[in-house]
Fold this sequence. Notes:
Elements: E1 6-7, E2 11-19, E3 28-34, E4 36-37, E5 40-41, H1 54-60, E6 75-82, E7 88-90, H2 94-100, E8 109-116, E9 121-126, H3 131-139, H4 143-146, E10 147-151, E11 157-160, E12 166-167, E13 172-179, E14 185-188, H5 204-210, E15 223-227, E16 230-237, E17 242-255, E18 261-274, E19 277-281, E20 286-289, E21 295-308
Antiparallel strand pairs: 1-20, 2-3, 3-6, 4-5, 6-13, 7-14, 8-11, 8-13, 9-10, 9-12, 15-16, 16-17, 17-21, 18-19, 18-20, 18-21
The structure holds zinc ion.
Amino acid sequence: MKEYTLMFKPVFKERIWGGSRLHPKGHIGEAWIVSDHPEGKTPIINGVLSGKYLNEVMQTHQEWFSTLPLAKFPLLVKLLDADDDLSVQVHPSDEYAMINEHGVTGKTECWYIIDAKPGAEIILGHNAKNRREFLALARAQRWDELLVRVPVKAGDFFFIPSGTVHALGKGIFLLEVQQNSDTTYRIYDYDRVGLDGHKRALHIEKALDVIDFNTEKCHIEPCVVSKDNFVKTLLISSNYFTVEKWLVDSMHIFHSLKVFVLIYIVAGKGQLIYEDGFIQLTEGLSLMIPANMGEYSIQGSIEAIVCHI
Ligand code: ZN
């Protein structure tokens, strides 16, 4: 079967902190837009593979994903719409999760801010020198001293390796690219009670095991390449994923890679044209270009976030 561009049906997740941008129903906090995670798989909605999930296609058409064998689909792409502050949390590394979470993978993630209300902030990092100091400040509820707040605006990008203390703040709409994992240790939940009248569980001990106390912060300088009506900004290249921002103005020709590529249209209108068809590009659409699909072009005026392994 000839490779073609895949489209997906998102899975919506109700969350107490969710807003109404993803779904008119409201309180929808997350849309999983490309996912093969057991808790929300996005089916393919176009072409002969319509109705199939990524793991099914991986079994029969491994070459659509990578020239190297993959144990499972490695990425999970989500949109998050926060109407309220999310709990402060940290994710384990692969090594820690392997031993302590029944062999699942860890979670390194990154955020591209699509929209943010004035004054919106995230929590990213902490001020404790070691485990003891972290625990002392947390027990004393001195959160303002312990946690680092960062103001955000549309277009900002944040890399959040496993071990980084972080929280999404209210008024932020973002795209998240992450390892295909959902292992989270909650550190602080603003002492809120849930719909059931109970506070959600915290996981301080495990969190302290995985929090990074190395105060050296790496600063990532985005690398920009521009040619033939196309501007590509490399936002991050890590062990788990590479994320780029693409700006196409009028027309640019691309070649598929040796791995699959996921494209999310942040803004603009246009068409993606490949050998056997075309897809109308509109804001909010996500696509997968299979490995070795061949040449394709993007026409129109498009801003996209693109990721691959
Ligand atoms: Zn997270």
